[in-house]
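Next comes a single protein record:
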Amino acid sequence: MDQKNTSIELDQDEIPESDIQFDCPYCGKHLSIDPRGAGLVIVCPDCEKHVSVPIPDGLDIEDIDASPEELSFRLRTSKATITKLQQQIYALQQQVDELQKFKEKAIEEAAEAAIHRKSLKASVLQFAKLEKQFAEAIDELNHKFPEFND
């Protein structure tokens, strides 16, 4: 039995946003189909080859055939999940903010520590210089007054 081609040519701006849009893997023709066509095999209007309609990420075939009550239940469940996830996102953002403050404080303290290390290093160098001068002065006194060398 021949399949009748019932495709309609639409301009890009006329294609509903909810449609599944994809290209024919054989001829590259841009195709668009109602979401209820997900998973079906259609005939490409240009090359007339059989093409599988992709199933969009996050869409289950069961969603298309679900009853209004089932969809309503799923919607309520999804809303509750979204609310919980938003609360988790808020809590995580609070943690990120706290960690950012901690990082900034640690960077400031590290900069202060570097300044103190530099100052301490200068003091140690000054102390070593004074120690050398003191040793030289002791040696000079020992040469001048050998009687006190015991």
